[in-house]
Please model this.
Amino acid sequence: MKENVLTETWLNHTFATTLLSAACIFLFIRWFLTRPRNFPPGPFSLPIVGYLPFLSKKPFLDLTKLSKKYGNVFSFRVGSKNVVVLSDFLAVKEAMNSDVFLDRPPDVQFQGQSDNISLASVNGSWWTEQRRFSVHILRNLGYGKTKMEDHIKDEINIILAHLASLDGTVCDVREVLVPSMSNIISAFVFGRRFDYNDPKRKYLDERLNEFVEYIQWFNMKTFFPWMKPFLSILKSGQFRKFEETTDKLLSFIRKEANNHKKSLDENHVRDYIDSFLIEMRDRQKKNNISSFLGKFSVFKPEEFI
Model:
């Protein structure tokens, strides 16, 4: 009799546990697969991994096929995050002109070992202020105008001259294309280009390549935020290297800013750094606390004002 009671109790507990587990799994799947209200259409996504298993090594081709089926604005799930894809110019233009789309994912954190807060991971008024300032300054420096075209044409001529000097010798064009593209940006940020053999050019490109390599790890944290504790343990070495690379890049930029400060002429703005330093001084004079001063600034006010 006692054994029958124990068996019945065990069966009741087992049934209750199974029922509760099934209910939890059902609710989890229902929550995962349910799209937010008024969300763009899109393909079916699996629990936990989302649509990742259906993407090939050339995801841009997969997204193009999906746009033909679901339209120029569609969605799917990556990990535990909903992703909206804009696949035509008009949709991208509309989004980029709206303040609603200015924020970045809250789980993205690009932070080095310094006390400064990275603007790459903040939102709100600080980011809006920097974005508007950057667009304004880049336009003044020739972004979207013939001046920018001149920079690109000059760099192309240098590439062609370099390739011609090889006299048909086999080479890896990436060794030329990467620094050439970087030089176009350098012309706006630093006010000059760096020769291919310039130690600064090589140092900057090496740090940027490292940055791109290590930053891929953050995609896991972005789309699988629940994996952060495990990733921090498994990838602690990668994270440390990312911090070191970030700090080396910041150190390189600060050295350039110091050189700019010594020859700064407010009547002759040469590049983005000049514009930023001038803006910092103006804000300091007006005692205007903003993203140009304090922990949000790449440049420390006490060093450059």
